[in-house]
Amino acid sequence: MDTTNHKPELQFRTATALDIPAIVTLVESAYRGDSGRRGWTTESDLLDGQRVDPAGVIEIIAKPYSCVLLAEQGGALIACAHIEKHDAVCYFGMFAVNPELQGGGTGKQMMNEAERIARKEYKCTKMEMTVISIRNELIAWYERRGYRRSGIFKPFPYGDERFGIPKRDDLRFELLVKPL
Question: Which region holds residue 17: left if phi is over 0, alpha if psi is between -120 and 50, else beta?
Answer without folding.
Answer: alpha
